[in-house]
Amino acid sequence: METRALPNPPSALSRRLSVVAAREHGVSPTQLHWISTDAEIFEVFYREHVEAVQSFVARRVGDRERAADLTAEVFLAAIDSAHRYRPRRAAPRTWLLGIARVVVANDGRQRHRQRVGEERLRGSALLDEEDAAQLDARIDAAARSRELYQAMDRLPEGERTVLELVAIDELSLKEAAALAGVRPVTARVRLHRARQKLRSELEAAADDPNPNKEDQQ
Amino acid sequence: MTQQRLPDDNFEERLLTRLKAEVAERGAAAEAAAVSASAAPSWRRKAPRLAFAGGMALAAVATALAVNAGSDSASKAFAVESQDGGGTTFKVYGLKEAPALEQALEDAGIPAQVTWLPAGMACREPHYTPSSIEVPGTGESQKGMTVEGPSSTGFTFGVGSQQQWRERADRHMHGEMSDEEFTDSVPSLNLDPAAFSSDQSVVISGAPVPFAGDPEGGFEATLAIAEGPVGACNPVPYQPSGESILRPPPGGWSN
After folding, report:
1. For tag attachment on chain B, is the N or C end more exposed, with fewer CB atoms within 10 Å?
2. How far is it, in rounded angstroms, from Cα A208 to Cα A186?
3. Chain A window 114-153: which residues touch B at a Cβ cutoff of 8 Å?
4. Does A7 sit within 8 Å of B43, measured CB to CB?
5. How many domains does chain A contain in total?
6. In chain A, where does DSSP find H-type helix?
């Protein structure tokens, strides 16, 4: 009996099964590259993470339309870069929030220039009044986080990143370390230092009678 | 920009709709590019091939085109192998030994009708009542059949517990098993005897098809789950497509 070797291509059915499996278990690391070309797998991925992305953005941006635009851009960027995802480096959620960090950071730098994503999809154009109210509520609920976020501005970048991911985004230390690109032990040290500095910062802010705490970017 | 408005529409759903359109566009473009690149599909010439009809996850019928490249395989119609951890794998290279395969399936707990037909023939349908089978991952009841494929040798399917399949799927889901390892180690299709109701059975029929210049170099088979009595297979002329329903994924077969 002799049969020649197969390259083992995934069949149409295999892909279909990946969709149904993803619906039950979530999009696995090994499936993630399909979010850029398979609308059904993308939908599973989107539903799994859209709330986390919206919350992540709302904790950093106090403007409803910007938050909507950035949410759309985060997912577009994920679609763009899914082929570069490496399962061993980060879980899908961590990877996506890493993209969100970059998108939000770039937005701050590019606000006065036309964003690439605007030509493809402006999230704010999809908002209606009811959405606006819900987004405002999400943004209001994140006001305290944005205060913290702003208070971190004076921390060194490395310490700020780890603290931000752990204290605001509630990532584990391991996830934060992966996202920041440092070893967990390094992240732990940075987190400890950042907390000490921030505590002093917030205590000083509490004595300020006219704090300008809301995001004015 | 004009928005589609639905009664329960909201920002998240509208954004999803737009993003899915973007993904679908990319998927279509990538698939077109891959199909174009494989205008002379070398993967068909190189290897024995198995394909199940897309979208059969909830359907009862799967069609497989299995192409045997070597003549030796024709001398052995199928092989039965024990799976690690229990269960049985059937590797089917042809259906010439239909009665023996039928018996082997029944020994494994799966009532079956297996029919090998002359080239160009198929069973006159309907000769049974198709039964709906659901696969794991639907979030609904899970019984009867699970499918993963294709395998590296012919038309492979397993008879074993759903639990065993799910344990492997979970390992795959959690990245502990690569796509390649998963598709290699998990039968193309898994039948769990415990999930079959007393009136359900498997109906397999197939016939040779031309391949690589050999008029009977491959075979095309249909596998279905039947409910209730299964009638005799009465052969009628049938023109096989000769085309595998396998299509390259966007970007080609390899990762």
Report:
1. N
2. 33
3. 120-123, 125-128, 130-131, 134-135
4. yes
5. 2
6. 12-25, 39-58, 64-81, 92-110, 116-120, 129-141, 143-151, 157-163, 173-180, 184-206
Cβ contact B75:A3 at 8 Å: no
Q: Same domain, yes or no, for A156 and A203?
A: yes
A119 domain-assigned: no
Interface-testing mutation among B13, B15, B73, B91, with chain A (most A C-beta atoms within 10 A): B15
Categorize the per-residue pLDDT at B239 as very low, low, confident or very high, splitting at 50, 70 and 90.
low
Q: Quick one: pLDDT at residue B241?
A: 44
Judge if A51 and A106 occupy the same domain: yes
- Domain with A153 in it: what CATH number? 1.10.10.10
* pLDDT at residue number B169: 66
Indicate whether A155 and A73 sit together in one domain: no
Judged by CB atoms closer than 8 Å, whether chains meet at B27 and A50 is answered as no
State whether residue A80 sits within 8 Å of chain B by CB.
Answer: no
Distance CA A22, CA B174 (A): 11
State both tokens at A63: 């403007």
> Domain range for residue A102?
27-112+124-141
B55 touches chain A (CB under 8 A): yes
Among B29, B26, B28, B2, which residue's Cα sits nearest to residue B14?
A: B2
- CA–chain centroid gap for A2, Å, is 51
- A-facing residues of B in 69-98 (CB < 8 A) are 69-73, 75-76, 79, 93
Q: Which residue matches tokens 């079959």? A: B196
Quick one: CA dihedral B227, B232, B236, B240, positive or negative?
positive
B130-144 pLDDT, tens digit each: 775 544 433 333 333
Residue pair B255/B179 in contact by the 8 Å Cβ criterion: yes
- A32 and A103 in one domain? yes
pLDDT surpasses 80 at B18:
yes
> DSSP readout, A110-155?
HTTS--HHHHH--GGGG--HHHHHHHHHHHHHTHHHHHHHHHGGGS
Q: B212 in contact with A at a CB cutoff of 8 Å?
A: no
> Do A147 and A137 share a structural domain?
no
**Does A3 fall in a domain?**
no
Domain shared by A64 and A108, yes or no: yes
CA B178/CA B200 separation, integer angstroms: 34
Which CATH number covers residue A74?
1.10.1740.10
Are the CB atoms for B60 and B130 separated by under 8 Å?
A: yes
* Confidence at residue B67, expressed as pLDDT on a 0 to 100 scale: 43
Q: Which chain B residues contact residue A96 at CB under 8 A?
A: none
Q: Does A36 touch chain B (CB under 8 A)?
A: yes
**Residue in chain B nearest A24 by alpha carbon:** B137
| ipTM given for this complex | 0.71
Indicate whether A15 belongs to any domain. Answer: no
